[in-house]
């Protein structure tokens, strides 16, 4: 008699189908269910040698019945109300001790709420962030787990087995209780937005400033991927720059509309950073840039009304080497902001986030994987709360790259090329090394119009200004 699978997965879309095959390939039988049965049939038909590991079901009732209790059921459906509806449909069919694992990009607050609902209804729940896109889900994603330690331990062998490996170390870790896993995934995506935006800004300097072709841009990205910027996003930027459109024969990038999509995780990161009072201006600039990109009609109207600001640049203004250093600085600054946010969240939500292990889990499998993360993990091992810009080797790297970042922002500004994320990184860095900011002016203004009071630099006990007398 064949054993029933312990695992089941609902939602055979891009991520769910790949994850189910990954789980099957690692020697686990898995039951699958999809709202549209035709998709299940096609998935099974294409499953090849893994067919015997898969148990296809056509109803939720059959799906639950096909799994051995205590069941481990992975949801890979769009985040939000669909997850709630799926849980609501599932729960009446479950036994106590069954475990629901939401593996989509849920908002951590929804995940916290779902934990409470699970406690009341007596099933177990995990919220896990999965990164790596379709390829990662199929062959090794980075996995960030939130929930009870005992539930993590129940699934850890399988999650570790399917995860990406960095020198044999699985990129799957328990981040903490409740929504901790989804929170870490959210910040991962915020950094992803910032990383992508800064690469796009470098592309803009090449394309609009130096007049480079996509092939020339591809060469620069390919070169950069052998140095400190070595990362998945730089690698794929080289690939997309090199690609040719099979329809027109033009460079692929030259036929793609300049409106960036978004599902919301970057925006959530910016909002949550504001809630914590942690500045993440590079991420905020990246989110704003996506929003601005969407306003194409207004931008076209602006170009017609005000004229394009674009001026050509020469190699006297900017070189690929300078841009590489500028991007290196920008990358350090945006990761520093992301980790500072995670440290603040860890304390605020009392999660004890494993800061250096977050960097380790991101070394492979996920979209922001990059060579720099190994050094970041070591720096966070030494001090998990000190901002990364103060840690070796990033302190020295920033000193080395700062002038190139400044020159890049200056050159781009002179040429009329918007570089909001790089400029935001530079301003943040400049502020972080300014012992006396102009915030004394803001304090004086606040006191003038609202008697809000201020602290003084000296010991004089006079917390208000002489405004009435002015
Ligand atoms: N794509 C990516 O690169 C990544 C995505 N994610 C996250 O993973 C989750 C899934 O994303 P992805 O695989 O890309 O999405 P897809 O759109 O490819 O697949 C969605 C799946 O959910 C099912 N579904 C949609 N609506 C409902 C509904 N109302 N009730 C039941 N099932 C429904 C679909 O079934 P049907 O066939 O019937 O439509 C399909 O199986 C999301 O939370 C996403 O943010 C996380 C990391 C990376
Ligand atoms: O989570 C991911 C990778 O880590 C997804 O690819 C994410 O959906 C991309 O976000 P957006 O659609 O907002 O660009």
TrEMBL record:
Protein species of origin: Pacificibacter maritimus
EC assignment: 1.1.1.44
Classification via InterPro entries: 6-PGluconate_DH-like_C_sf, 6PGD_dom2, 6PGDH_C, 6PGDH_Gnd/GntZ, 6PGDH_NADP-bd, 6PGdom_BS, NAD(P)-bd_dom_sf, Pgluconate_DH
GO BP: D-gluconate metabolic process; pentose-phosphate shunt
Keywords: Gluconate utilization, NADP, Oxidoreductase, Pentose shunt
Domain of life per record: Bacteria
Function of the molecule: Catalyzes the oxidative decarboxylation of 6-phosphogluconate to ribulose 5-phosphate and CO(2), with concomitant reduction of NADP to NADPH.
SMART domains linked to this entry: 6PGD
Xref: PROSITE patterns: 6PGD (PS00461)
Family per record: Belongs to the 6-phosphogluconate dehydrogenase family.
GO MF term (any one): NADP binding
Name under which the protein is recorded: 6-phosphogluconate dehydrogenase, decarboxylating
